[in-house]
Amino acid sequence: METIKPKSALKSKRFGKTFQKVISLRSSATKIASSNGICILNPNNIKDNKGARNRAVMEALVARLFAGVTTIKAAYAELQMAQHPYNNDSIQAADQAVVDELRAISELKRSFIKRDLDLSPQITIMLAEVQEQQSLMKTYEITIKKLQAEVDNKERNISSLKKHLHDCVSFNKSLEKKLNSSGSFSIFDNLKLSALNPTHFLHFLHHALRPIRSFVKMMIREMENAHWDLEAAVNFIHPNAVFTKPSHKTIFEGFNYPNFNVQNDQSVRHHNKNQSLYFEKFKKLKSLSPKQYLTHNPNSSFAKFLKAKYLQVVHAKMECSLFGNLNQRKMVNSGGYPESPFFTAFAEMAWRVWSLQCLALSFEEEVSIFQVKKNARFCEVYMECVTGESCDDSDSGELRVGFTVVPGFKMGKTVIQSQVYVSLVGSSSPATS
After folding, report:
1. 234 and 122: one domain?
2. pTM score above 0.85
3. Same structural domain for residues 361 and 387?
4. In this structure, are strands 418-424 and 383-385 parallel, antiparallel, or unpaired?
5. 9 contacts: CB under 8 Å, gap ≥ 6
6. Angle at 235 between CA 234 and CA 237, to 5 degrees
7. Closest C-alpha to 361, from 224, 196, 135
8. What share of the chain is helix, strand, coil (3-state, %, to 5)?
9. Does residue 26 lie in a domain region?
10. What is the per-residue pLDDT across 338-360, written as a single tens digit (0 to 9) for each?
């Protein structure tokens, strides 16, 4: 027998199954949506995200503006650089860069006012940083070019000044050479032995002192370059002297003997001389250079005199200190002629002193040399003060000779004054120029 169920019970059962399916579908849909990364934000989160984006956009805008300003500065620097020297292409390129950047900034301003900024913050900031760095690099390159141009200009000025200095030195040397040349001896060209007088000797003496001073200046420069203590050297030679010329004493030694007594024959004096022979020798020597003479007369008395005086004046320790070796000394000792400026100056000095003695031996009256002793009383008849000041009676005390700078000469009754440094009695240092 079948059991008959009521219809209401069947409907209720079907509705329950349907509701359960709907719940299951919604649950599965929620899981699928969650697994796909879809989230539903509430209104508060939406407002916060919008504010953060606005701030990011503003930061990007400011970064873009700063990058634009840097670009304009770089273009302006390039514009200035192109003015000197004038470069039309660079000027136009820099001008166009300024115009383009101003237009871009103007467009940003328009978009900002209309609130129509369409910027990707991250990309915009990154591009702005790249643009700013490129502009800075360009500015630095322009600055480097500008500094390099200044360096080149200064180097050109230095080269020009060096050339000017070289020209001045060459001109001074040419003047000095003219002063020391035979042209200064025009008064001796047609001079005869019978017309010789003390004025001729004094004139040539002044000329002979020039190469002496030139050599002493060169020697002092070499001492300074070798870091010598000049004050200590001066005090060793002449205690309490402020300045000295050590060659003045030794270069004239032996002047009272023919050929400066290079053979050490003390018995030979001026009165045994042949005047005309020495006068002709003097006239021949005055037109030659020491190198020319030594080339043709390597074993002459002058060659022996030059060798003896160099070895006497320039000590071996001094030469080694000044030049780092004894090459010049060895060459001179073996009869050679060093080509150095130092020895050339020394040879010129010795040549003039040698010629001066030849002239002295040409006089009928004997010409003798004298040197004033240290601490001797100053006398204007025999002495001349090298300070250039008046050496009359001093209110501070009595004047005494510090040392002789240039010896004096006697020619009969004529006296050529000795040049001396003087000091006051009781004074710790002599007068100086």
Report:
1. no
2. no
3. no
4. parallel
5. none
6. 65
7. 196
8. 65, 5, 30
9. no
10. 888 889 889 988 988 898 888 88
